[in-house]
Amino acid sequence: MISKLSLVLIFIIVLNLQSFTQGNLLITPKRVVFDGNNQKAELNLMNTGTDSATYSISFRQYNMTELGKLMLIEKPDSAQMPAEPYLRIFPRQVTLAPGEGQVIMLQCRRNSGMKTGEYRSHLWFRDEKNYEASGNEKPSLDTNQLSVSVTAIFGITIPIIIRSGEINVSSHLSDLKLEIQKDTISFIKLSINRTGNISLYGNLYVDFVPTQGKPFEIGRLNSIGVYTNISKRIISIKLNNIPGIDLKTGKLKVRFTSPDDSKYVVYAEEELSITN
């Protein structure tokens, strides 16, 4: 006789989005970079919910796909450069009452054997609440039937980056293409190309440049990262539909710039001519 098998599927929500919130946890900042001589950083947590919550904090390793999805790496290979061995964090678990905050301390410990380039790991903030499985509330008595329960585990990851030695990075935009869906919804697709030994991180702006008149912004996408395991990231930006504006009467200009919390620098820019 075949025994009944209960299959548990665990869904982990990993959102790599200066403040960041998911569920009832607010984290500031949403990324940490150790470069130069800085060795310490603080993360500010706050429970924005109405119930007390406990979060455990640990390190994880991810790679990024060209579409921006983060893929968990169970066993990093020799090409990986995890930051975890050079980081210390305290505390490792926090319990926050509604509206309560907590400071998490991060310390970077470099050594002389570090390679040139960028080390990266991700801090994983896991909600330790007691999850209830959903699925078959009353498992079938049929011993040949598969019983499935689903447990959702909610958490947040933020990247922690250490830069070592002589670093360099450059980028350019390519493959710009305008797509119009249902006659009114417009998107521009493009690729951010990266070369060098560190990652890129910034904002994308799309300006419409009419044949007559001044350019104006019609699209924006913030907090775009291109990690060192990829040389290209494919992006799609939804454009604002402005009544009376025909995109085919001008051109689009796309800028990839530094993020809002740093000095404004244009990493790369490109134009797409769409004039009839």
**Uncertain residue segments:** 1-18, 132-137
Going by CATH, the architecture of the largest domain would be Sandwich
Mean pLDDT: 85
Q: What does the overall shape look like?
A: globular
CATH fold assignment of the largest domain: Immunoglobulin-like
Proportion of residues in helical segments: under 10%
Strand content: over 45%
Number of helices: 0
Write the element-wise H/E pattern from the N-terminal end onward.
Answer: EEEEEEEEEEEEEEEEEEEEE
The CATH superfamily label of the largest domain reads Immunoglobulins
**Strand count, sense and closure of the main sheet?**
7 strands, mixed
What is the structural class? Answer: mainly beta
Number of domains: 2
Q: Count the E strands.
A: 21
CATH class of the largest domain: Mainly Beta
Distance between the termini: 72 Å
User: Whole-number radius of gyration?
Assistant: 23 Å
